[in-house]
From TrEMBL:
Source taxon at top rank: Eukaryota
Sites marked Required for activity: R150, R157
Localisation: Golgi apparatus
Enzyme Commission identifier(s): 5.4.99.30
GO BP terms in the entry: cell wall organization; UDP-L-arabinose metabolic process
A Gene Ontology molecular function term of the record: UDP-arabinopyranose mutase activity
Protein name in the entry: UDP-arabinopyranose mutase
Keywords attached to this entry: Cell wall biogenesis/degradation, Glycoprotein, Golgi apparatus, Isomerase
A Gene Ontology term for the protein's cellular component: cytosol
Family annotation (InterPro entries): Nucleotide-diphossugar_trans (IPR029044), RGP (IPR004901), RGP_fam (IPR037595)
PANTHER family: UDP-ARABINOPYRANOSE MUTASE, UDP-ARABINOSE MUTASE
Length: 405
């Protein structure tokens, strides 16, 4: 484990959200990387149980009593007895970025034997643009030592804001229950050294165990649905959130990336229990995926919240024939947005001082380094002078070419 304290980019702009029913001793392995960040622990199950958190971490812990107290009647939209409860942490955070990780995920090593700082890689993924419109065959063009390949349109090299960074897993891959049952000994040993943008118009199976996102740009869509207790389905919260998030990200021309970083997943759950939770999803999704593939939002949907409400109407109209559950889910989607807006309205959120600092630094940045933000993007090279300037940087790209998408 690295002995020296690691630099902590965005440490005042990012929360780490952990859903748990277990003691959090796994944090010891992450201490060098997580030690300077604020944790939001969402305790599922019996609220009277005490969750042990190792000394020295800065955290807030919310159990079911807290969820009920804070949300009141809206608490019905937060799942019970499923990792989907983690989205409560997204709701109460006041930060621009979220990293969420499961408590059976540990620090992995890269092929050179180095410990992987998964959080730093996610931050890098989020702070550099994505390329949803045109696939770069040399993978992430903004990575040191890579670039856009010949034939890649200059006018597209500025890229788009990245809103989701989806990390992967060594050891236990995120297989569904049937696959786990027929391949109980299979382990993922393949480390693929790549980050890719998931092309616009493509869905993907988002796994919540090693995931980061831009809460400011897409957080309102990161609802993990209604799972488990009282519901006919479980273990699909992250997949549902990923489908909703991707169609909304496409609508706003935001990018979603997958690949690095890897974590080491030491799966703690039982495939038999998961089978009972997941099985109905295995056949529902044969209709749910075509539904999402057909989703289009009207131009009036100018915010994530408006898109999400529109999506809830489509769910109610076009999926309820599958099962009445989708009516309940559509209602819960509306409740989620109501809760999101209530907890995240400007009145609710104190204006963070650093936002003012960021804008002032944006002014100086604009005068000092217009070249690196107006010319270099078109040359396919983005310099991130200071990661914490990203939020102001995002609004300072200027297109040298007008490219109608
Ligand atoms: O009722 C529950 C069960 C678990 N948790 C916490 O949620 C995460 C994930 O739990 P676990 O690692 O046991 O689940 P897996 O089968 O390995 O993975 C599933 O979880 C999702 C990925 O995050 C996805 O549905 C599956 O891949 C842990 O932190 C548990 O402590 C919970 O809060 N409540
Ligand atoms: Mn797990």
């Amino acid at each position: 484990m690295p002995s020296t304290k690691v630099v902590a980019p965005l440490k005042d702009e990012l929360d780490i959200v952990i859903p748990t029913m277990r003691n959090l001793d796994f944090l010891e392995t992450w201490r060098p990387f997580f030690g300077q960040y604020h944790l939001i622990i969402v305790q599922d199950g019996d609220p009277s149980k005490t969750i042990h958190v190792p000394e020295g971490f800065d955290y807030d812990l919310y159990n079911r009593n807290d969820i009920n107290r804070i949300l009141g009647p809206k608490a019905t939209c937060i799942s019970f007895m499923d990792s989907a409860c983690r989205c409560f942490g997204f709701l109460v955070s006041k930060k621009n970025y979220i990293f969420t990780i499961d408590d059976d995920c540990f620090v992995a090593k890269d092929p050179s034997g180095q410990d992987i700082n998964a959080l730093a890689q996610h931050i890098q993924n989020l702070l550099t643009p994505a390329t949803p419109f045109f696939f770069n065959t040399l993978y992430d063009p903004y990575r040191e030592g890579a670039d856009f390949v010949r034939g890649y349109p200059l006018s597209l090299r500025e890229g788009k804001p990245t809103v989701v960074s989806h990390g992967l897993w060594l050891n236990n891959p995120d297989y569904d229950a049937p696959t786990q049952l027929v391949k109980p000994l299979e382990r993922n040993t393949r480390y693929v050294d790549a980050v890719q943008t998931i092309p616009m118009g493509n869905l993907f199976p988002m796994c919540g165990m090693n995931l980061a996102f831009d809460r400011e740009l897409i957080g309102a869509a990161m609802y993990f649905g209604l799972m488990c207790v009282g519901q006919p389905i479980g273990g699909y919260g992250d997949l549902w959130a990923g489908w909703c998030t991707k169609v909304i990200a496409d609508h706003f021309r935001f990018g979603v990336k997958t690949g690095l970083p890897y974590i080491w997943h030491r799966k703690a759950s039982s495939p038999f229990v998961n089978m009972k939770k997941e099985y109905v999803g295995l056949y529902w999704q044969e209709e749910v995926i075509p539904f999402f593939q057909s989703v289009e939002f009207p131009r009036e949907c100018t915010t994530v919240q408006k898109c999400y409400i529109e999506l809830s109407k489509m769910v109610r109209e076009r999926l309820a024939h599958l099962d009445p559950y989708f009516q309940t889910l559509a209602d819960a989607m509306v409740t989620w947005i109501e809760a999101w807006d209530e907890l995240n309205s400007v009145a609710a959120a104190p204006v963070p001082v650093d936002k003012k600092d960021a804008s002032s630094s944006a002014d100086t940045m604009e005068s000092e380094s217009w070249y690196s933000y107006y010319i270099e993007p078109c040359l396919g090279r983005i310099r991130i002078d200071n990661m914490s300037k990203r939020s102001s940087q995002r609004f300072h790209y200027t297109k040298l070419y007008q490219y109608d998408k």
